[in-house]
Amino acid sequence: MLIFSVFKTLTDQVVTVELKNDLCITGTLKSVDQFLNIRLDKISVVDPERHPHMMAVKNCFIRGSVVRYVQIPATAVDTQLLEDATRREHASTHKR
Amino acid sequence: MPTVPISAPPTFITVEEHRDLTSSTPDSFNSIPPVLRHKEANVTVSLDPPLPGLEGENIKGTLYIVESVLAFVAASGSGFQIDYPSITLHAVKREPTRVSIYCQLDETPEGQPLPEDEDSEMREMFIVPETEDSLEPIFEALSICASLHPDKAGDDDEDMEDEMFADADESGGGFETFAGGEGEELSAVGRAALAHLESIIVYPPGREPPAVVEPEDGVNGVNGTTEPETSEEEDLTQTEAQSLPNGTH
């Protein structure tokens, strides 16, 4: 739930999504859902020669389960706050 | 699951039929057929690599976006269906010559672990409707149906749920509990950890716990105010213990 909330704060930011099949797509994060399915706008593929199929694609919907990494701008998130929030969430879900 | 050949459209009901069926409690929830989210006739579909048995670029037929599967039946009567978990991504592709829906499909056979090397099989599908106006509805229907099929594979959250319900008094249950009773004292490390945890916990008003009693502070120490509170708690437990036998009558 925490990562879902983090992504909700990142809408309209430019992110790069790396899929488990090595495809890397940069685009504007339009929306995210609880399964971390991602909609990107105005996308561009990081390595077009290796992945020619995505040319002329503007918007896409990426299934959450195929995402390996999401690269977000360093200025978009406070890593200290995020670390604390992650620890607190972990502590609360492991409460006896 | 990889793309499966079919010879007839899948069973489905329309949104209206579903609304009628569920307007009152149905006899069985399991027998409600899945809802058709979008149907598009006269689409042209191309698969790369092509499906054996469905040769040729550009096959004309009808597309059925049902909540259970994505299906296509060609004019010839043969077709295929795809499970939504194998659609890794779908997009609207706008080229100067044609506009289409592009889908990337994961064709690794079921049961195989996710391969690290290049060999994970992939298929691409292009759907070209008759009119450009159908593109957005097809894209939206695919997005809705994709979000209806999250992965069932065990992930971190599932593990955590089991731990939440672990029974503390199971023998060997593994939880060492500290209840602040007689003879138990926190070490310096333990006290520091407790202080940190207390600082990040937000208690509802009126439910704050008593302040920690520091043994080194002596009898009349800094925490003189804790004594009345702890004795109140003791009284409470004693009255509870007394009332219990009466309560069972």
From TrEMBL, chain A:
It holds the Pfam family LSM. Residues 2-76 form the Sm domain. Belongs to the snRNP Sm proteins family. One of its GO terms (cellular component) is U4/U6 x U5 tri-snRNP complex. Keywords: mRNA processing, mRNA splicing, Nucleus, Ribonucleoprotein, RNA-binding, Spliceosome. Its main location: nucleus. This is LSM complex subunit LSm2. One of its GO terms (molecular function) is RNA binding. It is found in: Nucleus. Component of LSm protein complexes, which are involved in RNA processing and may function in a chaperone-like manner. The keyword Cytoplasm does not apply. It comes from the Eukaryota. GO terms for biological process: mRNA splicing, via spliceosome.
From TrEMBL, chain B:
Pfam families: Voldacs (PF03517). Keywords: Cytoplasm, Nucleus. GO terms for cellular component: cytosol; pICln-Sm protein complex; spliceosomal complex. It comes from the Eukaryota. Residues 206-249 are annotated as: Disordered. InterPro entries: ICln/Lot5/Saf5 (IPR039924), PH-like_dom_sf (IPR011993). Residues 238-249 have a biased composition (Polar residues). It is found in: Cytoplasm; Nucleus. GO terms for biological process: mRNA cis splicing, via spliceosome; spliceosomal snRNP assembly. This is Regulator of volume decrease after cellular swelling-domain-containing protein. The lineage of its organism: Eukaryota, Fungi, Dikarya, Basidiomycota, Agaricomycotina.
